């Protein structure tokens, strides 16, 4: 068994929405297809991967460094000892060959894209949905058949007022979501407070159903000021108030803001995540960790990340991956995490789940198909087949 071809294609996910830091007018993502010499149902067995929103396509790194390494490897460098499936750890080691420690920038995204495709292949070769394979290997068989999901939206858009925001959120509730998240930080605090209050009116004043995300916009004074202003709302969480690598800021804010904080989507390695829980003031009894496997060297590194945060006293149920895609959903279900993000209104088709599975009471199931389940999402698999 061997890899015969690896294809990469940048795909646009552009829109006019903005958060507190960036707009998405030029946003794209890399899609990869890893084709093997195994034939299933008359066609080569292929694994697919892509990177989450918020980071651009990784075409240069993939084509110049990581795909050539993968294609140059000997089969025994990539396969399990039995030779009948790929070994993600061995594949990861090949991809990271001759890479220095540290510097976990864009390369973590490129490796994550390929790692996703390898895990898709591993589960397909095992003829199992990925989440069940993960439950058996890493969670004593105790996976979840449904996962709690929240609707991430509430982006800024020219001309979008509180009424339009409420209509957007109402659409998510109509789809079966019970909790949602909106952006803050790009508007004056008084305006953001009006937006929060409008959303809470829709949610019957229940702050536990609404999270806010500042996307790293604030310095410490602004983060504390915003935290003081939103404390009476008792929100689900206050996300990424400051720069994601400013652990001192996060720790100082945690001393001021008693309610849940959430961060981690812009940390790209096990070491970064370990430093966050060591030095960032994060509190295991209430806070939420949001590392994104697609952006942080893939599931192979994510397993290491979960191990080190558990060593620091954290429960897996405190981990809710960023990204809003089927890979994160499979990981959350298989490893028993606390939920998964969802993007029902943006970043399609990458932000969707299986066609036939709707959200009910804030939870969604997973398709009973081998692999991550991309084949059960008709719009997404069409993009992948074109790669």
**CATH architectural label of the largest domain:** Alpha-Beta Barrel
What CATH first level of the largest domain would be assigned?
Alpha Beta
Q: In terms of structural class, how would the helical and strand content be classed?
A: alpha/beta
The SSE order reads EEEHHHHHEHEHEHEHEHEHHEEH
Could you say which overall geometry the principal axes of the C-alpha atoms support?
A: globular
What's the CATH H-level superfamily name of the largest domain?
Enolase-like C-terminal domain
Walk me through the structure.
By secondary structure, the chain is an alpha/beta fold. It folds into two domains: 3-127, Enolase-like, N-terminal domain (Enolase-like, domain 1, 2-Layer Sandwich); 137-385, Alpha-Beta Barrel (TIM Barrel). The protein has 13 helices and eleven strands. Strands 4, 5, 6, 7, 8, 9, 10 and 11 form an eight-stranded mixed beta sheet that branches. Helix 5 (130-138) packs parallel to helix 12 (326-335). The two termini are 22 Å apart. The mean pLDDT is 97.
